[in-house]
Amino acid sequence: MLTRGSCSVCHQASAGPFCESRGRHGVLCLLLRLEAMKNAKKASKKAKAARMTVPVSEAESDRRLRPVLDALYNHNSRQALRHAQQALQRRPGWPAARALRACALLQSGHWAAAKEEIAEVRADLDAGRVPLDEDCARKLHMYYLEVRREEIAAELYERVWKTDQAQFQPAEIAYGLYIRGSAFTSAQKLATKLHRIASSQTPKYGMWATAALWLGLTCKSRRNRAAETSTSDAQMLKLASAMLSTALDASPTPSAEMVRFSLRVYEDGGNFDKARELVSNPRLVMDDTEKLQLRSEIKSVKGSRETDLRTLISEHDADDWINWMKFFNCVEKEENWKQRVSTLVSELRAIELASSRPKRGPFLAELELLCRLEEFENLAEAIVQFFRRFGSKTVCAHDLRPYLTAIKKTKLLEVSFDKMSALVSSGTDASHLTLAWMRLWYDRLGESEEELFQHYTRLLTEKTDKTERQAGDDYLLLIAHKLLPESLEGSSNRYADVSRVVRAILILETGLSKSPFNFHIKLLLMRLYREIGATQRMAELWQSLEIKDILVPTLIHLIMQPAFDLGHHDVSLGLLERVERLWRECDREVPECTSKAFRAGSINAAIEFVLFRKRLEGSAELAQCMIREVLHNLVIAGGEGIGVQRAFDCLSQLPRFTIDTVQVPRSLITNEDHECWRFWELHAGEQRGRMQIPDTLTEERGVLCPLVEQEAIAADLASLELLVRIAVKDFDSDRTGRSLEDTASPLKRLLDSKVISELPETTVLRMKVALNLLEAHQLLQSEKSQVLQPAPQNNALKHKKILQTAQSAVDMLLTMSQSVTRTNGKDHPTNKTDGKSAVSGSNSAPSEALHTASQLRQCGRMVFDTLLVTSMAVTSFSPELRIGKKRGKKARAKTGASMDSAGLNNVECARQVDFFVTGLESGVRSESQ
Q1: What GO cellular component term, any one, is given (predicted)?
Q2: How far is CA 548 from CA 73, 545, 553, 556, in A?
């Protein structure tokens, strides 16, 4: 007997889930019933067709699926789909062919269909309707590799291994995939199972379990390295040490790689005695110098460390300054440390004095000893003697700088300079250049620019090789310092006089023509060309540096920001391509190298690969490059749909740099190298010189970005994602994995926080525009679904407000450009100048308008991209505005037309500003050349 219920459409009383009325609701119910029956029949047919009892052989799989793989490799997704369908016709329900079909759908951009296909395959595998073999797991791994979920593929390989536990290869592949997917807990459990089964055959699986446990703790603590280790982490480190000891006991002869990794674990766990015992193992096959080096780095009994360091210095390398500093720090707080250090220094000084080529290490150690004892008179005399012996070496000035700083506040500095000046024979002596650098650092360089240029010309010679530097090149750097002295207040006043900047450029270009491979001159020229907005010349100098791809993320800050701000899209895109190529190669090759290193027993090398990949994934430079690539795609397309689609593809293909991954605790690190400016920015930060010991932890894991910079990156990513997704009408979360509201929630949090006042103005502008557009989208969606919801706070769609905000920025730019045009009405001298005239200051009158034009260009570029994407997003609403029910036909047409024209007018206005400022900049630069 049928029970009474309610209709799922009209909610009227009925005998079943659908009502029996003959009205409109009855027809809808009938259609729903037919649709449900059709879907059930289709699902039943698909379930029957998906059943397979016998797996496909390797030979048949290779024969039938090879065309699919070749088509995917050639990015021919349509042909791959056709070949996959043909294979499924021969073998209905074949999971490997269905996985490749999902890869083809993914490659063609049908993310939702690919996700649904894989979900069906996984459901069939879990239900046992199709068999799971290694070939099937391999094809599914291809899909999960594209969506960056390799830990799921590892689960499949582990299931394959459980069917035949005698074959360890699938389990080893699964372990490598767990590590690559950062599923360290699962990797540890799998390695522990392997160790229990094969502990009598090989001890490597015990090391694998320890490595997974240690990596899980290390990568978790990377985000907040300043925090103390929790109790649970300390217990896990003890467990890792115990597991490691068990694995080492089973190994008859520990390898060097195994020992290096073991020292990491023991030191993190505080087991310094075990670490020292391991390095002292007579069975260890390792060089004696490396043994001593490793023992000296272990924090154990100070007497033993002192012995090891003394042996390293006296018997292996007396010029290794890091070992000298470790020796000082080791014995400084002990009794009679002065006598012990003095004895060692005296012995080594006597040996070096008898040598034909003495090393600097013992003499520098004497300076360090006198500086720590604060015997400044003896220190001043030792500085003079060190200059007499090593003043001709280029590094001598940097060696002496921390000790000259120690006597800076006394009269001994002037006395030391006078004595060193007496030791210099003439301007052609190499020690004269060393003394000039030291005088510059302490504002005591009395020679004029003309005298320094004469020293340079006297040292010029044609005998040097083209790749070598001229002996007097540093005199040109000294001239640049004299023309543009560094101020302690900041660098804004340093480049205020554009005529002096151009004179310095002319002098350095003269030196570069004689020494085309001098990278110091090239770096300084790039810095000066940046001040006048000559990005094209900067790009030429950047190309001539021939920087390797692996170093691009550390030095890209030299050119990326000015090229992006000044609108040189060709230069910026070339840099972005190099960074993206490095990231993709590392993302493809580093995980494979990690797996191979584990299988080969190189545990420490595998750990280095994992940490390198983690550091690359958390790189702030890579996130910023992705933001700029999105903006470039929007700007270059000039408002067309293809540019928005490319920007959306860029955001969806790199999901690791989304707002979700840049949250507290902060994880973004910076890899920028600013040490290359030490010869130019002399007073930037504390100059400790050779007294500084490198921080191993900083070198290995990078430096955390400042909080404001991380917030700005996160806000830019979320704002651009909202703007682009609204523009392309991608409102679901199939491709990005996040809804619009999830992406907008951190932006709302930032707007209410105190950090908002420290963020860049363009970042705040993008945030407000994105949130306004999201409100407009939500209101439109509510109107279309006929659901009454409370209106936004300002009770308006805010379209006009958005466009007015962007229009006011454009009006400001136009006003500034007109004022600059009036300022540049006068002619400027165009006579050519040579090096001497540049030094003396004659014929050097490029106006301040050049500097103003480059500032205007930068300001216009910053507003242009935001204005463009806003106009495109607002214009995309016009079709939806036309279908509103409460508007009349004429009103709908008028509203849509006005929105279209407003958006397109703003796009055109942004283009005009961009082109106008570009022409203005090139015109002013041509006048000043």
Answers
A1: NatB complex
A2: 28, 9, 10, 11
